[in-house]
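Bug report (template v2)

What were you trying to do?
Predict the complex of my protein with zinc ion.

What happened?
Run completed; filing so the output is reviewed.

Input:
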Amino acid sequence: MRVKLSSRDTLIVVDMQRDFMPGGALPVQEGDTIVPKLNEYIGLFSKKGLPVFFTRDWHPPDHLSFKEQGGLWPPHCVQYSEGALFHPDLLVPQDNRFIISKGTSKDFDAYSGFQGTILDNLLKERGIRRVFVGGVATDYCVRNTVLGAINLGYQAFLLLDGIKGVDVKQGDSDRAIEEMLQMGAVALELKDLG
Ligand code: VGL
Ligand code: ZN
């Protein structure tokens, strides 16, 4: 497949933060291995003058998703902590890039970059119609961001060579990919993009 990028396209890089990388608080196995590929996507979109959005988990220390508060996860991506920083090798351009913090209040979690954020507004005011999504985790925040985009009327492309999942249950990531495709997402790899 060949997809030609246009001015109505954007890249959304989901949650490429230290805590989601090997050695972090909530590691995604091999999560760091997609950094070079994501950097290529980022370079491509940037070179074409297209905006790049970076979502990040940005939790208060007593966030409801943490085990101590009865949630599912160990504490991760606490606001201003080292674990909340992006992977040190991730290419974050100086211009035309936006950082979207989510899960920022204690009583509300957000797996989707659209939940409780102004991401939809920022895309709409720029006339964006198609979103290209990569990052972690395939079965959580990537899945929810892709499905959220589709529900909001965007065409979503899933960057198959730029995602990694956690697989709390074996096969979760594969099932999430199937579900996204079923809901209308289109699977792509870097070589498909012009
Ligand atoms: C995520 C679990 C908890 C993710 C965020 O980015 O996929 N997963 N918080
Ligand atoms: Zn989280």
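What did the reviewer find?
The first strand starts at residue 9 and ends at 14. The helical segments are 35-47, 119-125, 138-151, 172-182.
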